[in-house]
Amino acid sequence: xxxxxxxxxxxxxxxxxxxxxxxxxxxxxxxxxxxxxxxxxxxxxxxxxxxxxxxxxxxxxxxxxxxxxxxxxxxxxxxxxxxxxxxxxxxxxxxxxxxxxxxxxxxxxxxxxxxxxxxxxxxxxxxxxxxxxxxxxxxxxxxxxxxxxxxxxxxxxxxxxxxxxxxxxxxxxxxxxxxxxxxxxxxxxxxxxxxxxxxxxxxxxxxxxxxxxxxxxxxxxxxxxxxxxxxxxxxxxxxxxxxxxxxxxxxxxxxxxxxxxxxxxxxxxxxxxxxxxxxxxxxxxxxxxxxxxxxxxxxxxxxxxxxxxxxxxxxxxxxxxxxxxxxxxxxxxxxxxxxxxxxxxxxxxxxxxxxxxxxxxxxxxxxxx
Amino acid sequence: xxxxxxxxxxxxxxxxxxxxxxxxxxxxxxxxxxxxxxxxxxxxxxxxxxxxxxxxxxxxxxxxxxxxxxxxxxxxxxxxxxxxxxxxxxxxxxxxxxxxxxxxxxxxxxxxxxxxxxxxxxxxxxxxxxxxxxxxxxxxxxxxxxxxxxxxxxxxxxxxxxxxxxxxxxxxxxxxxxxxxxxxxxxxxxxxxxxxxxxxxxxxxxxxxxxxxxxxxxxxxxxxxxxxxxxxxxxxxxxxxxxxxxxxxxxxxxxxxxxxxxxxxxxxxxxxxxxxxxxxxxxxxxxxxxxxxxxxxxxxxxxxxxxxxxxxxxxxxxxxxxxxxxxxxxxxxxxxxxxxxxxxxxxxxxxxxxxxxxxxxxxxxxxxx
Lengths: 369, 369
Known about the structure:
The structure is a homodimer of 369-residue chains.
Chain A: E1 2-8, E2 14-21, H1 25-35, E3 40-46, H2 47-50, H3 54-59, E4 65-69, H4 79-91, E5 98-104, H5 106-118, E6 125-129, H6 132-138, E7 143-146, E8 155-158, E9 163-167, H7 176-193, H8 195-209, H9 213-233, H10 248-257, H11 264-281, H12 287-299, H13 312-320, E10 335-337, E11 340-341, H14 354-366
Parallel strand pairs in A: 2-9, 3-4, 3-5, 5-6, 6-9
Antiparallel strand pairs in A: 7-8, 10-11
Helix pairs in contact in A: 4-5, 6-7, 6-9, 7-8, 7-9, 7-11, 8-9, 10-11, 10-13, 11-12, 11-14
């Protein structure tokens, strides 16, 4: 037998910039054209954004090729939508020298990022997130994907954007429910990385809820800094990046079991409460934090009640299919204290025995939260 | 406006090994298990391979999870097949700690590589190519993809395999037409990189066609070395890797216009002839080479006649959608001499004026070759 070694060259250290500001959307297209000279641009947005003035502000007089995801939301986040977009791009005869712009919330960003990653083996993507959840979380860090009929982001890749533009004025057209649910990711960032930020959120919640520019810019920058510092260390989620999954193991499960009737943020709020219950069961303390969190979620008008239709069996079945499961049982991210994740033997995602998880699910399903 | 810089860490230089030999399939699974300890393995193969003894030789007594692509061939190379495989993997509750094994020809390798690249944001893939075309070309270098209704590999990514195992004994069950068509990629390698290899192929064709182990191993190693040396320098096809596309610009177009009734190798043979005609029109010479090529393709029983149903308009339409088109017109790889690609100003894919390409298409459509 003969052996041939094929070298894969190292890729150089690289970076991208997140610009955060208020009311600067009309300047963004010019900046993108400078950043990606000669690229034909293809815009992906959704039916919600198409109704707002954000789209017009971004495109100005340019008649960009575009695809409007209809209906907006998780229901369209599947491979059929990806196929339709790819075929639309092909019909416009776009080559590998095109680039994708994503204008919208998490669904738009996830779909557009995935399309860019797989279109003719990859073209650049620029993310312009317009929701609290996308600005805090999904537009940064390169996770993209679409759901299968069985699980969330079953199809996906890591695809870093070429640039991210966060204009907090886009948040002003968001309905209250979406706006508030997206703030759960900010709370998560504070919990895993920064106690002062947790205090800030509690103290400044009314300004945030009134959608004042100053606190909105403050939290956008804070979220990006926290998320960036995590993903820089572990872009492919081998270990430390998992801390961003705080509250998401049970959160994703409940979201999926509800057939996506729960908003992502609401599901993650339930997941964060679940993580806090597990922490207490493991003797890690945090009674005061659990009380503050319930109060905070209350102020956001987020119900912590798991929908009645969801059964324990369903939750246990879905949890065994977790993307990050090892031998069909997920690992959990837990807090050592507010602002710090528990790390054991260098690992940030930890085994929790089944009994404790099951007891926690029982508490959630009792709906006394 | 505030700016946050997100660093993307450099990825370390890496490599994978291609093992080439005869009759070593029964040892491969053990080697994969050593290479990927603890990974749950998922085998992707097709209906043709399932009928041969190769599958049994590989799996032995192990009852691997598997998906058999049915029907075998280009018709199944689409996103529906990918979706079915992903859902099958999910039903087996495979997490991100699984790995994919591709046993089969180019279609199996392309589909399986793409599935591995996008399954839960990426799992490893091991390629075990069983056809002349896959052993010479598609299993090496990390190109994966599936076709849309409009073009070839419209969906795709670059995904390097973790290992490649080439057992030339698998070629013995291949039908003559497939076997011969796959040798066109060997001829292409010789043309772009190694005149001695071109002479070897002409001299040893009868041994190859008799499927003797010695020349089959020789050409497998030669093909891998040539392809590896190209992809190592330019894994993402920014420039030099394009030389592997010699004959493929017109080749892919004719293949697509025939609705994949032409075998890939036959289409590339037509594309190689087209490239030689363009070379002569540009005064690059090569009259002798064109004669040798016609003779060689004749010995392989490969018809150079473009199917009657294909029109010039169709070809020009498809060519404008070429993945590597710049402003809707493809670049061409051309030979300076046998074994050496023409390089102009550091570029290996060159502009050719439309008139010359159209005249060449006219010659092909006259069907006098």
